[in-house]
Amino acid sequence: MNGLSMGRLKYLFEASRLGSMRAAADFLDVAPSVVSRQIAELEKVTCTPLVETNRRGAKPTEAGRLLIEHYRNHLAQEESLASRLNALVGLSIGTVSIGAVQGFADDLMRHVLQPFHAQHPGIAIKLQLGSINDILGWLEQDEVHLGLIYGPGFHSHQGRLKEVRSQLQPLCVVVCAQHPLADAPLLPVEALFEHPFALAHAGFGTRKIVEQVEANLHRRLKLAMESDHLICLTGFARCGMGATLLPAFAVYDDLKRGTLKAIPVAHPLLTEVQAQLVARRGRALPTAAQRLQRHIVQHMEAFNALSAPG
Question: What pLDDT is attached to residue 310?
């Protein structure tokens, strides 16, 4: 179809991604009228509206979404071609982007990114930390190549995303070695309500699981601290102030040193939780991203069934 140039489609893509014509214009460093005009030309070619505008901004129509998907696929193909050419010279340059929830960061850095960088120093890593919904959105928008999430699953996104690897990783009670619960091999869920906890803010994946347990039992944990940073949650437990709830892989080095203990809890909402490596279905990953994906599967403690030492 004449007129559907990638140059024009870029304006539609950015207006949709950023939510308004003005934001797209600022990003592309052009006047807002240029963005509007290019989208209007696309609408003439396709004979159908491509964008709905209201007070909240610009939202693509169904036809607009089809063109945006076509544009994304074109970008992915260009990236794949560049990657294959780069592979001919030994993965000397390139960028791999990863989205992850905070609990994966230390495991990813120590067991994957450090050796990967040593092998491929010319490959830059872009690591974005966010919530599960952030990461799933980044994957769907092709803003990251790979996603690392933790929770019961991503059922609402399964049409566009695929699970590369998963591993059951129970949400454990994490305490210091001197805590009264530290020597228990398995805790009844009722024991949790007798001790103060530090928890992630509402909206985080682990907090949603805790809220489901509380609703199931019609009881609430003793909330002593809330934080959106893993270092604060682990610090709370490490100082002996109380307990937190995390997967064992998130505190692996502390478990090896014996400064923290991770104790599983006998409740299905806390045991049936998975670490998941996710990618967009149908996207051809560049060679560097494929290589990093293999490193993640082979070396991350999150995908090792024996992630809690001892």
Answer: 43
